[in-house]
Amino acid sequence: MRLTKPEYREAKGFIAEVIRTNRKKSADIRVEEGAVTVVVPIETSLERIDDLLASKRRWIKEKIALHQEMAPPSCKRYVSGESFSYLGRNYRLKVEKGPFAPVKLVQGRLVVSVPQGAEQPRMIRNALVRWYKRQAELKLREKVARWAPQVGVAPTGVTIKTFKSRWGSCTSKGELQFNWRIMMAPNRMVDYVVVHELCHLIRHDHSPEFWAQVGKVLSDYEENREWLKRNGYVVTAL
User: Fold this and answer.
1) Where residue 32 falls among pLDDT bands split at 50, 70, 90?
2) CA-to-CA dists, residue 49 to 27, 28, 114, 189, angstroms
3) 147 in Cβ contact with 191 (< 8 Å)
4) What is the largest CA-CA distance in the chain?
5) Phi, psi (deg, nearest 5) at residue 24
6) pLDDT at 119 over 70
7) Does 54 have pLDDT greater than 90?
8) Residue 65: HSE in the Cβ half-sphere, 13 Å Cα cutoff
């Protein structure tokens, strides 16, 4: 359980997000999508965190490099004026120079502050990934709460994941998992994915009965499904 707002520590060549929790008795460093996160007990000092990041710097840099090698080529340059989609609407990026500050949506612009340096594009991408994940946590929980009563189900939880080839999943324990990239698709597509996974709480297959259940809630689900098949992974490239 996250107890405080995330903090950020600048290290040599990367930015680490710090999450404090009472569920951890020791520190845990993660590198996902090329972004570094350190989960620590709530009272851990900043000095201890900095020492930990320094001691693991080589391992962290290797993980970041591996992600860069495996990531598909991107046409994005992560510079001011470039456009990024959020719920189907395009927003311009504004890059400011200075101490690292996470992305904020301000007056129709995605504003991020990063230190000057050769690693700047990667830092900006990682900041955008973190922003999309935070929005996914907020918006998808709101949408699940909105649509669940209409479907007639009660999921046990909602988590945000990084999936390579799917938009969502429903576990055997009733937990819904969503790909954060869906936040770049139009809003009606997000609704469709939420309803789709909620209906899996009734039927864990893609039988005619399952699609009939989806159709009871969203009459245009076929159109949305086809749109995602044709456009989804192009629109949500980052």
Assistant:
1) confident
2) 8, 10, 20, 40
3) yes
4) 58
5) -115, 135
6) no
7) yes
8) 7
- Measured CA to CA, the distance from residue 56 to residue 90 in angstroms comes to 38
Residue 53 corresponds to which amino acid? L
Q: What is the pLDDT of residues 5-27, one digit of tens each?
A: 678 888 877 889 898 988 778 89
Residues in a beta bridge with 36 = 16, 31
pLDDT band for position 123 (cuts 50, 70, 90): confident
81 CB neighbour count, 10 Å cutoff: 10
Q: Which of 13, 75, 4 is nearest to 238 (CA)?
A: 75
DSSP per residue over the chain, as a string?
-B-S--EEEEETTEEEEEEEESS-SS-EEEEETTEEEEEEETT--HHHHHHHHHHTHHHHHHHHHHHHHHSPP------TT-EEEETTEEEEEEEEESS-EEEEEETTEEEEEE-SSTTHHHHHHHHHHHHHHHHHHHHHHHHHHHHHHHHT---SEEEEE--SS-SEEE-TTSEEEEEGGGGGS-HHHHHHHHHHHHHTTT-SS-SHHHHHHHHHH-TTHHHHHHHHHHHHHHHT--
Query: Residue length, the chain?
Result: 238
Tell me: pLDDT of 81 over 80.
yes
**How, if at all, do strands 83-86 and 89-97 pair?**
antiparallel
For 155, residues 6+ apart whose C-beta sits below 8 A from its C-beta are 144, 148, 170, 174, 175, 176, 198, 201
